[in-house]
Specification:
alpha/beta; Rossmann fold; 5 helices; binds 1,3,4-trihydroxy-5-OXO-cyclohexanecarboxylic acid; lyase; aromatic amino acid biosynthesis
């Protein structure tokens, strides 16, 4: 059974209460529940983590190396700033999908730049919490077509 790490970056622990007009009212615990249920349905093992700290996110990405099959990363604002997260994905040699709840391209200019996208298989954004299960399906189909 393939295993995915679904990794969430800074401020996403406040999901549901943080700017609900932008990010919705679904909490991160709800999202985790949705991902775990979806994993059971499609036959994927799910590890789910969140950190507000760049180094902890890097450690989590390194921890996937040779152990898990796919990374789904909502890096929050680090998406737009972190060369170190980009390098961590390349170093771990794991297929990654960049994920955002909001459509970052319809928002401020500074959210249009992504370091993660350069090393990602693809990007999903703008579908709210549903994006997480869409990303799981996309990753599974990517792994299947790559075989
Ligand atoms: C976000 C978009 C980022 O620009 C922002 O900094 C976040 C959340 C999203 O899920 O829409 O923290 O990654």
């Amino acid at each position: 059974m393939p295993g995915f790490l679904i990794l969430n970056g800074p401020n996403l622990n406040l999901l549901g209460t943080r700017q609900p007009e932008v990010y919705g009212r679904t909490t991160l615990a709800d999202v985790e529940g949705m991902c775990r249920a979806h994993g059971e349905k499609i036959g994927v093992g799910v590890e789910f983590e969140q950190s507000n700290h760049e180094g902890a996110l890097i450690d989590a990405i390194h921890g996937t190396r040779g152990r898990l099959d796919g990374l789904i990363l909502n890096a929050g604002a680090y998406t737009h700033t972190s060369l170190a997260l980009m390098d961590a994905i390349s170093s771990a040699e794991i297929p990654a999908i960049e994920l955002h709840l909001s459509n970052v391209h319809a928002r401020e200019e500074f959210r249009h730049k992504s370091y993660i996208a350069r090393v990602a298989v693809g990007v999903i954004c703008g579908f709210g919490a549903r994006g997480y299960t869409l990303a799981m399906d996309a990753m599974l189909s990517h792994l299947e077509t790559r075989k």
